[in-house]
Write a structure and sequence with these properties.
The protein is built from 17 helices and 2 strands. The protein is an all-alpha fold and about 325 residues long. It has a two-stranded antiparallel sheet. It is globular.
Length: about 325
């Protein structure tokens, strides 16, 4: 089990927090334990699946960037990872997904009921851990974040199979569903380090913008990636009737024929026309547009931490902004 980033380009990021990463792994192993064997089995299955672990990494990097010397950031990094894992378990059930991180989803392997309930266990375990830190501001940040994430999930559900979703409405989903936990992770790293309110806000802006960039590149990779590299089925968004930014751009800027094709595919969750949609998205410039929007968000993240003192941790945070838009998985 590893909380380290897995891409070769991010090795120096992982090295800068190697000791902290191992400490977080220990916390995860300890806190994951349950007397119910199925809880252990499913939770271990999804957490050991790997992934980029960006959110707990943010807690560690920001705390170190502000000179934190305690151990609470290890507990908080594990909390953030548990919350994220719980959302993945629930997301895959809602989306009826069968593949994540290059292997079967937990719901495909263990069933929907078990996945939802173990997701609930991880949520409740994370709140037990928060209480143990005895910091009301930590509780406020994380409870607000989980509530906003839940609202984002419902908003995305309302947008499903709706070809008339606007860019503004879609970006609201991203800010709620994805970027909010990035924001909370960065805020927590600053908070426990004794940063000022302005510095906590700046860290939050960094996390929010970085999370937005990550999600927008995920949108690109759903059409421009390959299943083996990105670890999920290419075209899943189309199959699920999700109007992501490339499709929204095509609806707003494509030819009448392209718009009609997109409309029908979103309404019906039709992946049979994936190749035709991919061709339209590529020729229309929708992927280039989405990538540019991700680059703007990543630059906003970089600017937000300009005031941080120079350190290897600040450099790692800046490198994450580059990784967010340059990655292929």
């Amino acid at each position: 089990m590893s909380v380290a980033l897995s891409n070769a380009k991010t090795n120096n990021i992982a090295q800068s927090i190697a000791a902290d990463v191992e400490a977080v792994n220990q916390v995860i192993r300890q806190r994951l334990h349950s007397e119910v064997s199925l809880v252990n089995q499913i939770a271990e299955y999804i957490i050991s699946a790997g992934g980029k672990r960006i959110r707990p990494t943010l807690v560690l990097l920001v705390a170190n960037a502000y000179g934190y010397k305690g151990t609470a950031h290890h507990e908080l990094a594990a909390v953030v990872e548990f919350i994220h894992t719980a959302t993945l378990l629930h997301d895959d059930v809602v989306d009826e997904s069968s593949m994540r991180r290059g292997r079967q989803t937990a719901n495909a392997l263990f069933g929907n009921a078990a996945s939802v309930l173990v997701g609930d266990f991880l949520y409740s375990r994370s709140f037990q851990m928060m209480v143990g830190l005895n910091n009301m501001r930590v509780m406020q940040i994380l409870s607000d974040a989980t509530n906003v994430i839940a609202e984002g999930e419902v908003l995305q559900l309302l947008n499903m199979h709706d070809p008339d979703v606007s860019q503004e409405s879609y970006l609201k989903v991203i800010r709620s569903k994805t970027a909010k936990l990035f924001e909370a992770a960065a805020q927590l790293g600053a908070l426990i380090s004794g940063a000022t309110d302005a510095e906590i806000d700046a860290a939050g802006e960094y996390g929010r913008s970085l999370g937005t960039a990550f999600q927008l590149i995920d949108d690109v990779l759903d059409y421009a990636g390959d299943a083996e590299t990105i670890g999920k089925n290419v075209g899943d968004d189309l199959r699920e009737g999700k109007p992501t930014l490339p499709l929204i751009y095509l609806m707003e800027n494509g030819t009448p024929e392209q718009r009609e094709l997109v409309r029908n595919c979103i309404e019906q969750g039709d992946e049979q026309h994936f190749e035709a949609i991919l061709a339209a998205i590529t020729t229309s410039g929708a992927l280039d547009f989405t990538r540019r929007e991700a680059e703007v968000a990543a630059q906003r993240a970089s600017s937000a931490i300009a005031g941080l003192p120079e350190s290897e941790f600040k450099q790692s945070l800046l490198q994450l902004c580059v990784f967010a838009v340059d990655r292929n998985h």
